[in-house]
Amino acid sequence: CYVVWDWGPAAVTTYFKQSQTVAVGLFFGLGTTMLAPYFMGFAVAYRALARRFSRSLPLWAAAAWAAAELARSRLFTETSFFSGNPWVLVGYSQAGFDALVQIASLTGVYGVSFVVIAVNAAFAELLLAAAGRRLSRSAAWCLGLALLPTLAALAFGFASLAGAERESEASGTQVAVVQGNVGLESRWRSDFYGRNLDTYLSLTQEALERGKPETVFWPEAAMTFFVGREPAYRSVIARTLAPGDAELLAGAPHYEGNDYFNSAFLLSPRGGLLARYDKQLLVPFAEFFPLGNIDLLRRSFGRIREFSRGDSSPPLPTRAGPAGIVTCNEAWFPEIAGRRVREGAGYLVNLSNDSWFEPNFSAQSFDMVRMRAVEQRRYLVRASTSGPSAIVDPWGRVLVRSEPITAEVLLGTIHARQERSLYGHSGDLFAVACALLVVVGLLAGRQVAQRSGSR
Questions:
Q1: Which helix (H) or strand (E) holds 248?
Q2: What does pTM read for this prediction?
Q3: Which of 50, 61, 177, 327 is the most exposed place for a label (fewest CB within 10 A)?
Q4: Sign of CA dihedral 364, 369, 374, 378
Q5: pLDDT tens, 256-286?
Q6: Which distant-in-sequence residues (6+ apart) come within 8 Å of 183 by Cβ?
């Protein structure tokens, strides 16, 4: 995981303006704290299960891994002091393998992890047996059993894709995604208040000339001013939108009293404020500060010191249908996207600010985000500050995608959907079942060991 998180130190130096020494120390400290307990728990469970279930060990190992990933993702999430860490779950490594990831519509990403770990655990046991020159029918049986989940997942995946004909563009809604690739300093310095607006307006004009999008999407924090309190800025935006009769969904800060929010606004072609979503799952240290007395990692954005958590709100009523907003890191959590769909979202929108990270981070984040489309069987529109931005269909297939670190415009067609996947109905039932199964297996093994010892 340290290799996968290679972007961490650079993000700390860029975002928090800390030295390289501090950045590396925080990188290893946070990585160890947020990952090691779960890996250690899996290792302990694996060793105990190996003593009891030799032939079926890969399946037990896969269940234990899925349980550990569920704990890592869900523990402390949406608390006032920290958040779960769903980064680099094994299932995300299969993003792009369309047939295999379809199982996520039944089990969530944890089912994809289950399949991958089962096969790898079987091969690991096979290699250990070969190294000890103790290959047997048991090892072969172990491998064969581990392949069953893979074959079942692939069979389901190919069947799902075969029945997933691309929906007609004529019956959908054309949308545009604008990726401004505006540098970090011009978003947050007070003397650049509103400066990047011309970039987004110019690219929006290009989108309106190339097609007829009914809804235009800008990324998180694209508007660096308080759009709700700036009628003059809204008037400028309206002059660009009105000729194409397009509405705009874009990120901007918002404040009420002493509370500041990381928000997404829906603006009419005439610049009127139609609806707003305030981000609910904030990033520790970046958007709120769980350790209030430690000033080391505080980052001041002009008037904004830290954000407040938004209240629950319905999907935004866009022309393309009810839009479930999952801002930036909210899209990393399967349960957040599931909540948006239960609230009535016909499609998902991920507004993201990736400019203060390296491209490797953004690529990994995109692999995570596109899994939400499969899990919920919803179109997903991703508008990133520096890419990749994309439109993804309900089977995780990328319809259009931008290049990273470029200013670019994407056009595509989406469809609002009403039906919900099995995972949308059941949530993390599969991963919870894995956790309960492992507990039962560990207790059963302990009882057997105790009876053997008493003899």
A1: strand 247-256
A2: 0.90
A3: 50
A4: negative
A5: 998 999 999 999 999 999 999 999 998 877 7
A6: 355
